[in-house]
Design a protein that fits this description.
single chain; alpha/beta; Helix Hairpins; Rossmann fold; Alpha-Beta Plaits; 3 domains; four-stranded antiparallel sheet; 13 helices; 10 strands; elongated
């Protein structure tokens, strides 16, 4: 959202401009001066600096000068005091910071738009941050935005269901959108708006109630997550298979440099299209665990598998090996 000019400053500036225009026109009409001389006289009068009239004033001109001094100097004082109060209260710094934030968001490319900075949104933001993934947070609550800004994240103030707000967050250049608001209706509207603005956007939506999943899917969400369902399954898995779950957590954790699990997509036009999987992974410590093609998941694909445009590989290995594999693409 654009920072608004303080009401007092705006009123004072408009009133001062009106005084300057009316006084200048008055000198032109009463004294018959040129517009330049009339404006010069007006500035001297309003600022009370003096300096001499361009020409001798008539009695009517002196009355106009008295009125300009009284009204103009009062308006000028009011405007300056309003601007000074605005600066001293720290609002000027906030406006400058907001402008800097908007410029930073406008430069983002291939980033994520995260809608909602509550408990779930906060965890998502921390995960993005650990992975050094660029993202911007959209929220309508001032308290949530203040916490996000204090954590060092880029923020956009507004309702994420509104198209102008999503555009301000750079939705046209985003890699994906995650809507994690605790209101299912809001998540549905956000998904609809994002899908309309970016038909190819990858959208992950939060579902707080079971009946919201079908609505989110119809709205265009690619993936739907219920924190309560996921939490229940995870607790059950930890109870039954604690070591396996610990291993998966280690692989998925962005904080470990020993092992990393990553998605790698074969772009269209890549020189690897038509090549065997063994050639892509040659001399690399990364292991291709799965290949997703046409919504079908193939686990441990054969090294002779020919790659196709749009294939998604799930690879595990040391961070350097994963990054080297990405570089090849």
């Amino acid at each position: 959202m654009q920072p608004s000019v303080p009401r007092g400053v705006a009123i004072g500036a408009l009133a001062l401009l009106a005084v300057l225009l009316l006084a200048t026109a008055g000198y032109v009409w009463i004294e018959g001066w040129s517009w330049y001389d009339a404006f010069y006289m007006t500035i001297l009068t309003v600022s009370t600096t003096g300096g001499g009239e361009p020409r001798p004033l008539s009695p009517a001109g002196r009355l106009l000068t008295i009125a300009v001094i009284i009204v103009g100097f009062g308006v000028l004082t009011y405007t300056l005091l309003s601007a000074l109060a605005y600066i001293l209260e720290g609002k000027f710094g906030e406006a400058v910071g907001a402008q800097r934030m908007r410029r930073a968001v406008a430069r983002m490319r291939d980033h994520f738009v995260l809608c909602g900075y509550g408990r779930v949104g906060g965890e998502i933001a921390h995960a993005f941050s650990r992975e050094h993934m660029p993202f911007v947070i959209v929220d309508i609550k001032e308290s949530s935005l203040a916490r996000a800004a204090a954590d060092g994240y880029a923020v956009v103030n507004g309702n994420a269901a509104d198209a102008p707000v999503l555009r301000e967050a750079g939705i046209e250049h985003a890699r994906g959108l995650v809507t994690a608001v605790d209101d299912d209706a809001v998540n549905v509207y956000v998904t609809l708006s994002a899908r309309t603005l970016q038909p190819n956007l990858f959208i992950v939506a939060r579902a707080n109630h079971p009946d919201a999943e079908a609505k989110l899917r119809l709205a265009g969400a690619n993936r739907i997550i219920s924190p309560y369902t996921i939490g229940g399954r995870r607790m059950a898995s930890l109870a039954m298979r604690p070591t396996s779950v610990e291993f998966v957590d280690t692989v998925l954790s962005a904080g470990t440099s020993e092992l990393l699990l990553e998605d790698i997509k074969i772009p269209s036009g890549s020189r690897w299209v038509g090549q065997a999987l063994r050639e892509l992974a040659a001399d690399n410590e990364a292991i291709v665990l799965a290949l997703k093609r046409a919504n079908a998941m193939h686990f441990r694909p054969s090294v002779e598998t020919r790659l196709e445009a749009g294939d998604e590989l799930v690879a595990a290995g040391p961070r350097d090996a994963i990054r080297a594999l990405e570089q090849r693409l």
